[in-house]
Amino acid sequence: MAGISTHVLDIANGKPGAGMRIEFSILENGAYRVVKTVRTNEEGRTDEPILKPEDAKAGRYELLFHVDEYYAGLRGHLPDPPFIDQVPVRFTVFDATQHFHIPMICTPWNCTTYRGS
Amino acid sequence: MTSENVPGYMPGNMPESVPENMPASHDQAPSRRRLLGAGLVLGPMAVVPMGFAGPSSAASRAAGASGAPATAKAAPGKTPIPPVEPSLTVHAIDTYRGETEAGLRFDLSYFENGGYRLLERFETLAGGRTKDPLLNRDELKAGRYEITLHLAEYFSRIGARLPQPSFLEEVPIRFKVADAAQHYHVAILFSPWNYSYYRGS
């Protein structure tokens, strides 16, 4: 299935990253234009795909994960000083018939992303 | 692994109780602590990696030779970790090739007045580090930074066969420096399909 999806995992707490704000942007004319802002659900996923199969097209995209805001909002888990800021993941959809799953695995001190499935 | 093929250790007098994960002699900071621990446990049978000349090696031999209870020697024998000069350093590791080729380009920017302003452009040496710190003690200040890795250019140059345009092209790495009196090491692992970064040491 084509399109774009994500999944946030808070591995500092061993649970899905629920309620994280993510801005989805597309690169147009040399600048990223925000298409929509979403929040992850209790599973750390989004209720709707970031980009639905029927809307998929090749291009350059950004998912801006507000990891710093997420940890600042968790009581009892506010490291001082924090290290991870907002995390922009910029990637290319080079084939609109393929699915692009972009997981975000994070703690206040590190993060990882990859092309998932 | 048997005692005969533990790198960096003298064969022949290795007790059977030596842990298999004894550090190599070049792994300095952990090896000092773990070596000392090994010396205290093993007593006179303790061995020291060849070429190791750290201050704690003498301490561990002395502790072992004296035959005194380990607990009595542990506290004073601990080697303090020397303070690290405040600075910003980077190590970018190519996990696709297994070693970073020289010439990975990246840009360092600092967030001010609502945007990221370019401070300086860098290139890695072979291995993924830079010749000098990105920012030294006098230059490092608290705030928000961004390192942009030019990955598409790098993988194209080393001949990786990837879709064009590739999945990852220019990768932004953002992080915060809260205390400019500390050393900040940004460790980055990257391949054409994933990356990870963390505050290292």
TrEMBL record, chain A:
Q: Which family does it belong to?
A: Belongs to the transthyretin family. 5-hydroxyisourate hydrolase subfamily.
Name the gene for this chain.
Answer: uraH
Which UniProt key words apply to this protein? Hydrolase, Purine metabolism
Which is a GO BP term held by this UniProt record? purine nucleobase metabolic process
Relate the assembly described in the record: Homotetramer.
Q: Which PANTHER family match?
A: 5-HYDROXYISOURATE HYDROLASE, URICASE AND TRANSTHYRETIN-RELATED
Function text: Catalyzes the hydrolysis of 5-hydroxyisourate (HIU) to 2-oxo-4-hydroxy-4-carboxy-5-ureidoimidazoline (OHCU).
The record, for CDD domains, names: TLP_HIUase
EC primary class = hydrolase
Q: What Gene3D superfamilies does the database record attribute to this sequence? A: Transthyretin/hydroxyisourate hydrolase domain (2.60.40.180)
The protein here is known as 5-hydroxyisourate hydrolase
Query: Which reaction is catalysed here?
Result: 5-hydroxyisourate + H2O = 5-hydroxy-2-oxo-4-ureido-2,5-dihydro-1H-imidazole-5-carboxylate + H(+)
EC numbers listed for it are 3.5.2.17
Molecular function terms from GO: hydroxyisourate hydrolase activity
Q: Where is the Transthyretin/hydroxyisourate hydrolase domain?
A: 4-116
UniProtKB/TrEMBL annotation, chain B:
Pfam families linked to this entry: Transthyretin
MF terms from GO for this chain are: hydroxyisourate hydrolase activity
Q: Which residues form the Transthyretin/hydroxyisourate hydrolase domain?
A: 88-200
Q: Which residue windows are transmembrane per the record?
A: none
Q: Which GO terms describe its biological process?
A: purine nucleobase metabolic process
Instruction: Provide the catalytic activity annotation.
Output: 5-hydroxyisourate + H2O = 5-hydroxy-2-oxo-4-ureido-2,5-dihydro-1H-imidazole-5-carboxylate + H(+)
What EC number(s) has UniProt assigned to this enzyme? 3.5.2.17
KW RNA-binding (keyword) present: no
Q: Which UniProt keywords apply?
A: Hydrolase, Purine metabolism
Q: Does the keyword Hydrolase apply?
A: yes
Q: Entry's PROSITE patterns?
A: TAT (PS51318)
* The organism's place on the tree of life at top rank: Bacteria
Q: Which InterPro entries match?
A: Hydroxyisourate_hydrolase, TAT_signal, Transthyretin/HIU_hydrolase_d, Transthyretin/HIU_hydrolase_sf
Q: Where is the composition biased (Low complexity)?
A: 58-78
PANTHER family, alphabetized: 5-HYDROXYISOURATE HYDROLASE, URICASE AND TRANSTHYRETIN-RELATED
State the function annotated in the UniProt record: Catalyzes the hydrolysis of 5-hydroxyisourate (HIU) to 2-oxo-4-hydroxy-4-carboxy-5-ureidoimidazoline (OHCU).
Q: How does it assemble?
A: Homotetramer.
To which protein family does this belong?
Belongs to the transthyretin family. 5-hydroxyisourate hydrolase subfamily.
NCBIfam families according to UniProt = hdxy_isourate
Q: What is this protein called?
A: hydroxyisourate hydrolase
Give the species: Streptomyces antnestii
